[in-house]
Specification:
abc type-2 transporter like fold, mainly alpha, 2 domains, four-stranded mixed sheet, 4 strands, 399 residues
C-alpha cells in the first residue's frame, strides 16, 4: 500500500504540473460554468421581457358578428388588428410569420350570445413562437369578454353566481415541497456530475496512460519496484480524486450562482425553500454518490486509454463516450422510471435516479446500496482489465 501511495503522489505532482488539468479542474467549473449560467439566465429573462412587451398582430375574422368582442380586443394596447385578411389565408400567413394569430367568429356568434347560449370562437396561433405569447394574449382577451358576458347575464337575470359552478374543484397536492424539489432539481444535478466528472477523468486518464506512453516516461515507472497492480491503483486514485474535485467545484459554483444571483431576482421565500431542502444531510448523501461514480469513470477511462498508443488516439476513443454517458442521465428524467432493484444496476442511470430520491427524501437504502455495489463492481472489473493489459508488453509499448 505504501508504494501505491508513492505512485499516487508522483502522479498527482505530474498532474498538477499540467496547465490543461488545472484549467479543466479549477478554472472551467468555477469560472466558465457560472459565466455560462449567468449568460443563459439573463438572456432568457431578457427575451421573456421583450416578448411580453411586444405587440402581436392578429386578424379578427367575422368581427361584424361580435361587436362587443371587437371592442374588447381593440381596447387591448398590446394587440393590433390587421384588416383585410381572408379566412383561407390565415394558416399560410401565420406559418410565414406575417401574422401572429387570429380570432375567427362564426355568423351565429351574437345570436347565441343574445339567446343566453354558449357561442364559439376559434383561436389560431403557432405554439412554436417565443414563449407562446400570442396564445396567452388571445385567450386572455376572449376570457375577459366571456366574464363580461356572464356577469351581465347574472345581473340581468338575478341569478346566483354559484349556479354556474356546480362543483368547485380544489387542488390538494399531497407531494411535499422536498419531493417536488427532488424531481425538478434532482434531475438537473446529474448533468453536472456526469459532464464535469467524466471530462476531468478523461483528460487526466489519457495523460497518465496514453500520454506517458507517447512521452516515453512509462518505461521509467515500470522499472521501479512497484508492481503493475500498484501502478494501476496509483493512477486510479489520482483520476478518481481529480474527478471528485471537479464535481465538487462545479457543484460549489452552481451553489454560488443560486446564492448570489445570476441577474434573475429570486424571491426570498423560494431561496428559503431551496436552502431548507438542500440541508447538510442531503448534501452529505449526494457527496457519497460522487465516490462510486468517480471510481467508475476513472476505471473506465483508464481501461480504454491504456490500449491507445497516443494521446490523440485515446481522445478519439473516449470523446464519443461522452454522448453515451449523457443518455442514462436523460433516461432518468423520463416519467415512470424510478430507482428499483433493476435500475440500480445500470451505471449512471442509478446515480441520476438516486439523486432525485435523495433530494426528495424518499431514497430506499437497499436500492442505494445496490447502486454503490454495481458501480464499485464495474470499477473493480475495469481495474482488473487494466492490470491484465498492463502485464502485456504489446499493450504498453504499442507504436
Amino acid at each position: 500500500m505504501g508504494r501505491t501511495l508513492t505512485i499516487a503522489k508522483k502522479e498527482m505532482k505530474d498532474t498538477l504540473r499540467d496547465r490543461r488539468t488545472i484549467l479543466l479542474l479549477i478554472v472551467f467549473p468555477l469560472v466558465v460554468f457560472p459565466l455560462l449560467g449567468t449568460l443563459v439566465f439573463r438572456y432568457t429573462q431578457r427575451q421573456a421581457e421583450r416578448a411580453d412587451e411586444e405587440r402581436v398582430e392578429i386578424a379578427l375574422i367575422g368581427d361584424e358578428y361580435a361587436p362587443g368582442l371587437r371592442q374588447v380586443v381593440a381596447a387591448d394596447t398590446q394587440i393590433v388588428i390587421v384588416p383585410g385578411v381572408r379566412l383561407e389565408d390565415i394558416q399560410d400567413l401565420i406559418r410565414a410569420d406575417s401574422l401572429d394569430g387570429a380570432i375567427v367568429v362564426p355568423p351565429e356568434f351574437q345570436d347565441r350570445i343574445d339567446a343566453d347560449a354558449q357561442a364559439t370562437a376559434l383561436i389560431f396561433f403557432q405554439s412554436s413562437g417565443a414563449f407562446n405569447v400570442t396564445e396567452g394574449r388571445l385567450l386572455a382577451v376572449v376570457e375577459a369578454y366571456d366574464e363580461e358576458i356572464v356577469s351581465g347575464r347574472i345581473d340581468r337575470l338575478a341569478l346566483d353566481p354559484d349556479l354556474f359552478d356546480a362543483i368547485e374543484t380544489q387542488r390538494v397536492d399531497l407531494a411535499t415541497l422536498q419531493e417536488v424539489m427532488g424531481q425538478q432539481v434532482g434531475g438537473f444535478l446529474p448533468y453536472v456530475f456526469v459532464i464535469f466528472m467524466f471530462t476531468a477523468a478523461m483528460n487526466v486518464g489519457i495523460d497518465l496512460s496514453a500520454g506517458e506512453k507517447e512521452r516515453g516516461t512509462l518505461e521509467t515507472l515500470l522499472s521501479s519496484p512497484a508492481t503493475r497492480l500498484e501502478i494501476v491503483l496509483g493512477k486510479f486514485l489520482v483520476i478518481t480524486s481529480v474527478a471528485i474535485t471537479s464535481a465538487i467545484a462545479s457543484i460549489a459554483s452552481l451553489a454560488l450562482v443560486v446564492r448570489f444571483g445570476v441577474g434573475v431576482e429570486i424571491p426570498p421565500e423560494i431561496m428559503d425553500v431551496i436552502w431548507s431542502v438542500l440541508n447538510f444531510k442531503v448534501i452529505a448523501m449526494l457527496a457519497t454518490l460522487l465516490v462510486p461514480l468517480a471510481a467508475f469513470f476513472a476505471s473506465a477511462v483508464l481501461a480504454v486509454a491504456i490500449l491507445a498508443k497516443s494521446f490523440k488516439e485515446a481522445q478519439g476513443s473516449l470523446v464519443p463516450l461522452t454522448i453515451v454517458m449523457i443518455v442514462p442521465v436523460v433516461l432518468g428524467l423520463l416519467p415512470g422510471i424510478e430507482l428499483n432493484a433493476r435500475t440500480a444496476l445500470i451505471p449512471i442511470l442509478n446515480v441520476s435516479l438516486a439523486t432525485k430520491d435523495v433530494i426528495s427524501g424518499t431514497i430506499n437504502p437497499l436500492h442505494l446500496a445496490i447502486s454503490y455495489a454495481s458501480l464499485f463492481a464495474l470499477a473493480g472489473l475495469s481495474l482488473w482489465f487494466c492490470v491484465k493489459w498492463f502485464s502485456r508488453e504489446e499493450t504498453l509499448f504499442r507504436n
